[in-house]
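Supplementary notes for students who missed Thursday's class. We covered one full example, reproduced here. Read the sequence, then the structure, then the short commentary at the end.
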Amino acid sequence: MGLVQAVTGAVGGMLGDQWKDFYTVPDGLPSTAALFAAVPRGTNAGRGSNTHGSSNIITNGSKIVVPEGYGLLLFQDGKITGFAAEPGGYEWRSDDLNSQSIFAGDGLVGPLIKQSWERFKFGGQPGSQQAAFFVSLKELPENRFGTQSEIYWDDGFLNTQVGAVTRGSYTLKIVDPILFVKNFVPASYLQPGQIFDFTDLDNAAAGQLFNEVVGSLAPAFSLYSNDPAKGNRITKLQQDSLGFAKSLSDAVENGYQWKSERGLAIVKTAIVSIEYDANTRELLKTVQRADALAGSRGNSNLQASVAQGIQSAGENGGAAGLVGVGMASGMLGGVGNLQQPVAPAAPAADDPVAKLKKAKEMLDLGLITQDDYDALKAKALGL
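Structure (token representation):
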């Protein structure tokens, strides 16, 4: 009985595999699918008779259509034998005995007998495995990352360690499909009907990538915030998705060799939120105040404040108040790199030169008018 079954299976399968196949992408494919098997179309709108071929044999002369944005990987007995990156229709040709077909000009009697005999030795099934897989060459979206607690990095601008909780997403691209399949994709996904999807929560390999991205966030923030080309400002990060994507891609490459060993690269990022810790928020407030008081605007604000202080001191505290304002303005020197006027030493009461110098300084500060200065000058010189 076993012999009869083997012969029947060998002859029946061999005859079914004589038909040329038409392969394309499966129906209902998710947009985030990265790798999946090409599927044969045995029927179309009720027409077609190619429904009994072996699932692991591709007949010579079969056509495989590669759509835009995908590459085609060919396998023979578990080994990658070919790759096509351009869209279009391709014809399958193999020297394997099981792929030979009378419809592809491979002969009639000889190949049929040889195929039957080979399949008989394997219990009626072909002793070979052939497969065609599509691999996405597009940007694959919706790859999310996030931290549950603060991550810390050394910030070049703040000159200290800062921390934040962050979350966002990135797009991923397969830049070397052969490395990707050889070094990263589990064997369970190299089967008909399986779809490798980075966003699949049950995909352990994708989960590993998520953990590696989270582990690379602190180095990525450090690379970005300490890059002089980025202005050393971490606050620019959310406005620079491409710049941070490069920092994150460099960080995962340095730590986990995504591109060189797995054929993967991060292309773009979207930072949804960055929540700095309390110390960092206070530092950023100080930086914002310093920025607001920097340069000529800061000098103008300071001069106006000093003038107002001198006027108030003169009204309320006399000479003692003026001395206090001078001390305060001296203490402000250096804040925000402002150029502050230095309070002069109190001149001797009977020194006309000192009086004129003081009057000139007050004129330059706008505290007195030219007429006031001329009057003080005439009085000091006894004119």
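Commentary. The longest strand covers residues 160-174. The mean pLDDT is 73. If anything here is unclear, bring it to office hours.
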